[in-house]
User: Which sequence fits this backbone?
Protein backbone atom coordinates (compact mmCIF):
# COMPACT_ATOMS: atom_id res chain seq x y z
CA UNK A 1 0.00 0.00 0.00
CA UNK A 2 1.56 3.34 -1.04
CA UNK A 3 2.16 5.71 1.89
CA UNK A 4 -0.26 8.37 0.60
CA UNK A 5 -3.00 5.77 0.11
CA UNK A 6 -2.50 4.49 3.67
CA UNK A 7 -2.72 8.06 4.99
CA UNK A 8 -6.13 8.35 3.31
CA UNK A 9 -7.20 5.00 4.76
CA UNK A 10 -7.63 3.50 1.29
CA UNK A 11 -9.20 0.03 1.07
CA UNK A 12 -9.80 -1.81 -2.18
CA UNK A 13 -13.41 -2.93 -2.61
CA UNK A 14 -13.82 -3.98 -6.23
CA UNK A 15 -12.71 -3.32 -9.79
CA UNK A 16 -13.72 -4.40 -13.27
CA UNK A 17 -10.85 -3.91 -15.72
CA UNK A 18 -13.08 -4.57 -18.74
CA UNK A 19 -15.61 -1.96 -17.67
CA UNK A 20 -12.83 0.36 -16.45
CA UNK A 21 -14.49 0.82 -13.09
CA UNK A 22 -13.16 0.73 -9.53
CA UNK A 23 -14.66 1.03 -6.06
CA UNK A 24 -12.54 2.03 -3.09
CA UNK A 25 -13.14 3.06 0.51
CA UNK A 26 -11.34 5.78 2.45
CA UNK A 27 -11.33 6.71 6.11
CA UNK A 28 -11.80 10.41 6.78
CA UNK A 29 -10.42 10.98 10.29
CA UNK A 30 -10.66 14.00 12.60
CA UNK A 31 -7.22 14.94 11.24
CA UNK A 32 -8.91 15.89 7.96
CA UNK A 33 -11.51 18.27 9.44
CA UNK A 34 -12.09 22.01 9.21
CA UNK A 35 -13.07 24.14 12.23
CA UNK A 36 -16.74 23.08 11.91
CA UNK A 37 -15.79 19.41 12.17
CA UNK A 38 -16.57 18.63 8.52
CA UNK A 39 -14.06 16.89 6.26
CA UNK A 40 -12.10 19.66 4.53
CA UNK A 41 -12.62 19.66 0.76
CA UNK A 42 -8.85 19.34 0.46
CA UNK A 43 -9.11 15.75 1.67
CA UNK A 44 -12.23 14.98 -0.36
CA UNK A 45 -10.21 16.10 -3.39
CA UNK A 46 -7.28 13.94 -2.29
CA UNK A 47 -9.57 10.88 -2.10
CA UNK A 48 -10.99 11.61 -5.54
CA UNK A 49 -7.44 11.96 -6.93
CA UNK A 50 -6.67 8.58 -5.40
CA UNK A 51 -9.78 7.13 -7.07
CA UNK A 52 -9.26 8.31 -10.66
CA UNK A 53 -5.62 7.16 -10.68
CA UNK A 54 -6.36 3.61 -9.48
CA UNK A 55 -9.33 3.40 -11.89
CA UNK A 56 -6.85 3.75 -14.75
CA UNK A 57 -4.03 1.74 -13.11
CA UNK A 58 -6.36 -1.25 -12.74
CA UNK A 59 -6.63 -1.40 -16.56
CA UNK A 60 -2.88 -1.10 -17.32
CA UNK A 61 -0.11 -3.64 -17.87
CA UNK A 62 2.28 -4.41 -14.96
CA UNK A 63 5.05 -2.35 -16.64
CA UNK A 64 2.87 0.72 -17.08
CA UNK A 65 2.04 3.59 -14.76
CA UNK A 66 0.03 6.75 -15.09
CA UNK A 67 0.40 10.43 -14.36
CA UNK A 68 -2.64 12.59 -13.65
CA UNK A 69 -2.15 15.87 -15.51
CA UNK A 70 -5.19 17.81 -14.42
CA UNK A 71 -8.37 17.35 -12.42
CA UNK A 72 -11.47 19.25 -11.51
CA UNK A 73 -13.49 18.75 -8.35
CA UNK A 74 -17.00 19.92 -7.48
CA UNK A 75 -17.96 19.97 -3.80
CA UNK A 76 -21.63 19.15 -3.42
CA UNK A 77 -22.37 18.50 0.26
CA UNK A 78 -20.61 18.71 3.64
CA UNK A 79 -19.56 15.41 5.17
CA UNK A 80 -18.52 14.34 8.67
CA UNK A 81 -15.52 12.08 9.36
CA UNK A 82 -16.09 8.40 8.69
CA UNK A 83 -15.86 5.84 5.94
CA UNK A 84 -16.29 7.31 2.46
CA UNK A 85 -16.61 5.37 -0.79
CA UNK A 86 -14.98 6.43 -4.06
CA UNK A 87 -16.22 5.11 -7.38
CA UNK A 88 -14.04 5.81 -10.41
CA UNK A 89 -14.34 5.12 -14.10
CA UNK A 90 -12.27 5.30 -17.28
CA UNK A 91 -14.50 7.40 -19.52
CA UNK A 92 -12.38 7.28 -22.68
CA UNK A 93 -8.86 6.30 -23.69
CA UNK A 94 -7.12 7.53 -26.82
CA UNK A 95 -3.58 6.16 -26.90
CA UNK A 96 -1.73 7.44 -23.85
CA UNK A 97 -4.37 10.06 -23.01
CA UNK A 98 -7.23 9.02 -20.78
CA UNK A 99 -10.32 10.77 -19.46
CA UNK A 100 -11.46 9.66 -16.03
CA UNK A 101 -14.18 10.50 -13.58
CA UNK A 102 -14.98 9.70 -9.98
CA UNK A 103 -17.51 10.40 -7.27
CA UNK A 104 -17.19 10.26 -3.50
CA UNK A 105 -20.07 8.99 -1.34
CA UNK A 106 -20.86 9.22 2.36
CA UNK A 107 -22.06 6.38 4.62
CA UNK A 108 -25.63 6.84 3.39
CA UNK A 109 -24.61 6.53 -0.26
CA UNK A 110 -25.14 10.24 -0.90
CA UNK A 111 -22.70 11.79 -3.34
CA UNK A 112 -20.62 14.49 -1.61
CA UNK A 113 -18.03 15.43 -4.25
CA UNK A 114 -17.26 14.60 -7.84
CA UNK A 115 -14.24 14.77 -10.15
CA UNK A 116 -16.06 14.44 -13.42
CA UNK A 117 -15.01 14.17 -17.04
CA UNK A 118 -12.12 16.57 -16.74
CA UNK A 119 -9.47 14.36 -15.21
CA UNK A 120 -6.91 13.47 -17.82
CA UNK A 121 -3.90 11.25 -17.49
CA UNK A 122 -0.95 9.99 -19.46
CA UNK A 123 -0.11 6.33 -19.59
CA UNK A 124 3.67 6.09 -19.08
CA UNK A 125 6.20 3.30 -18.71
CA UNK A 126 6.67 2.28 -15.08
CA UNK A 127 10.38 3.14 -15.50
CA UNK A 128 9.46 6.81 -16.01
CA UNK A 129 7.14 7.01 -13.01
CA UNK A 130 9.61 8.84 -10.77
CA UNK A 131 10.08 11.65 -13.31
CA UNK A 132 6.35 12.22 -13.87
CA UNK A 133 4.31 14.91 -12.17
CA UNK B 1 -5.00 25.79 13.68
CA UNK B 2 -7.71 23.64 12.08
CA UNK B 3 -6.99 19.90 12.21
CA UNK B 4 -6.77 19.52 8.43
CA UNK B 5 -4.36 22.44 8.15
CA UNK B 6 -2.14 20.93 10.87
CA UNK B 7 -2.15 17.60 9.00
CA UNK B 8 -0.80 19.43 5.94
CA UNK B 9 1.82 21.19 8.08
CA UNK B 10 0.39 24.60 7.24
CA UNK B 11 2.35 27.67 8.40
CA UNK B 12 1.28 31.23 7.78
CA UNK B 13 3.94 33.31 6.03
CA UNK B 14 2.28 36.52 4.88
CA UNK B 15 -0.94 38.02 3.58
CA UNK B 16 -2.09 41.32 2.11
CA UNK B 17 -5.85 41.74 2.51
CA UNK B 18 -5.95 44.78 0.20
CA UNK B 19 -4.16 42.94 -2.59
CA UNK B 20 -6.07 39.72 -1.79
CA UNK B 21 -2.88 37.70 -1.65
CA UNK B 22 -1.58 35.09 0.80
CA UNK B 23 1.59 33.06 1.19
CA UNK B 24 1.62 29.84 3.19
CA UNK B 25 4.01 26.96 3.72
CA UNK B 26 3.17 23.27 3.96
CA UNK B 27 5.19 20.25 4.96
CA UNK B 28 4.91 17.31 2.59
CA UNK B 29 5.95 14.27 4.62
CA UNK B 30 6.73 10.69 3.55
CA UNK B 31 3.11 9.93 4.51
CA UNK B 32 2.02 11.83 1.38
CA UNK B 33 4.17 9.92 -1.12
CA UNK B 34 3.40 7.57 -4.00
CA UNK B 35 5.41 4.38 -4.65
CA UNK B 36 8.18 6.37 -6.41
CA UNK B 37 8.67 8.56 -3.33
CA UNK B 38 7.16 11.68 -4.93
CA UNK B 39 4.41 13.66 -3.23
CA UNK B 40 1.12 12.26 -4.53
CA UNK B 41 -0.85 14.83 -6.53
CA UNK B 42 -3.69 14.20 -4.08
CA UNK B 43 -1.74 16.06 -1.40
CA UNK B 44 -0.52 18.78 -3.76
CA UNK B 45 -4.21 19.37 -4.54
CA UNK B 46 -5.04 19.37 -0.82
CA UNK B 47 -2.40 22.07 -0.22
CA UNK B 48 -3.74 24.17 -3.09
CA UNK B 49 -7.27 23.82 -1.70
CA UNK B 50 -5.93 25.02 1.64
CA UNK B 51 -4.30 28.00 -0.11
CA UNK B 52 -7.26 29.33 -2.13
CA UNK B 53 -9.61 29.14 0.88
CA UNK B 54 -7.32 31.10 3.23
CA UNK B 55 -6.60 33.65 0.44
CA UNK B 56 -10.30 34.53 0.51
CA UNK B 57 -10.76 34.12 4.28
CA UNK B 58 -8.00 36.66 4.93
CA UNK B 59 -10.15 39.30 3.17
CA UNK B 60 -13.43 38.52 5.01
CA UNK B 61 -15.09 39.92 8.12
CA UNK B 62 -14.79 37.91 11.37
CA UNK B 63 -18.45 36.78 11.05
CA UNK B 64 -17.99 35.46 7.52
CA UNK B 65 -16.73 32.17 6.19
CA UNK B 66 -16.35 30.69 2.73
CA UNK B 67 -17.18 27.49 0.92
CA UNK B 68 -15.14 26.35 -2.05
CA UNK B 69 -17.57 25.08 -4.68
CA UNK B 70 -15.23 23.84 -7.36
CA UNK B 71 -11.54 23.77 -8.16
CA UNK B 72 -9.25 22.70 -10.93
CA UNK B 73 -5.66 21.60 -10.49
CA UNK B 74 -2.88 21.19 -13.06
CA UNK B 75 0.09 19.05 -12.07
CA UNK B 76 3.25 20.41 -13.68
CA UNK B 77 6.25 18.70 -12.10
CA UNK B 78 7.03 15.89 -9.65
CA UNK B 79 8.15 16.96 -6.19
CA UNK B 80 9.88 15.18 -3.31
CA UNK B 81 8.76 15.51 0.31
CA UNK B 82 9.78 18.73 2.03
CA UNK B 83 8.61 22.26 2.63
CA UNK B 84 6.34 23.57 -0.13
CA UNK B 85 5.09 27.12 -0.51
CA UNK B 86 1.55 28.01 -1.59
CA UNK B 87 0.74 31.44 -3.00
CA UNK B 88 -2.94 32.29 -3.39
CA UNK B 89 -4.83 35.25 -4.78
CA UNK B 90 -8.38 36.57 -5.00
CA UNK B 91 -8.75 37.13 -8.74
CA UNK B 92 -12.22 38.67 -8.70
CA UNK B 93 -15.13 39.02 -6.31
CA UNK B 94 -18.71 39.68 -7.42
CA UNK B 95 -20.95 39.72 -4.34
CA UNK B 96 -20.74 36.32 -2.66
CA UNK B 97 -19.04 34.66 -5.62
CA UNK B 98 -15.27 34.77 -5.78
CA UNK B 99 -12.69 33.54 -8.26
CA UNK B 100 -9.41 32.44 -6.75
CA UNK B 101 -6.13 31.02 -7.91
CA UNK B 102 -3.06 29.50 -6.31
CA UNK B 103 0.28 27.97 -7.14
CA UNK B 104 2.44 25.55 -5.20
CA UNK B 105 6.23 25.87 -5.26
CA UNK B 106 9.08 23.55 -4.27
CA UNK B 107 12.15 24.46 -2.19
CA UNK B 108 13.85 25.92 -5.26
CA UNK B 109 10.90 28.19 -6.03
CA UNK B 110 9.86 26.11 -9.02
CA UNK B 111 6.11 25.89 -9.58
CA UNK B 112 4.94 22.29 -9.24
CA UNK B 113 1.14 22.58 -9.39
CA UNK B 114 -1.44 25.27 -9.95
CA UNK B 115 -5.11 25.79 -9.19
CA UNK B 116 -5.72 28.62 -11.57
CA UNK B 117 -8.68 30.84 -12.35
CA UNK B 118 -11.28 28.14 -11.96
CA UNK B 119 -11.61 27.98 -8.19
CA UNK B 120 -14.85 29.57 -7.13
CA UNK B 121 -16.22 30.08 -3.68
CA UNK B 122 -19.24 31.44 -1.89
CA UNK B 123 -18.94 33.90 0.94
CA UNK B 124 -21.30 32.69 3.67
CA UNK B 125 -22.16 33.75 7.23
CA UNK B 126 -19.93 32.01 9.78
CA UNK B 127 -23.13 30.63 11.39
CA UNK B 128 -23.81 28.60 8.22
CA UNK B 129 -20.30 27.18 7.96
CA UNK B 130 -21.19 23.74 9.31
CA UNK B 131 -23.90 23.24 6.67
CA UNK B 132 -21.71 24.24 3.73
CA UNK B 133 -19.88 21.77 1.49
Assistant:
Amino acid sequence: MPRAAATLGLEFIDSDADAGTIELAFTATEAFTNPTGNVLGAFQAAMLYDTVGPALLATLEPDQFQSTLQFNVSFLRPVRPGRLVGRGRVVHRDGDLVFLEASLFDGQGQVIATATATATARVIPLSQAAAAA
Notes: The radius of gyration of chain A is 14 Å.
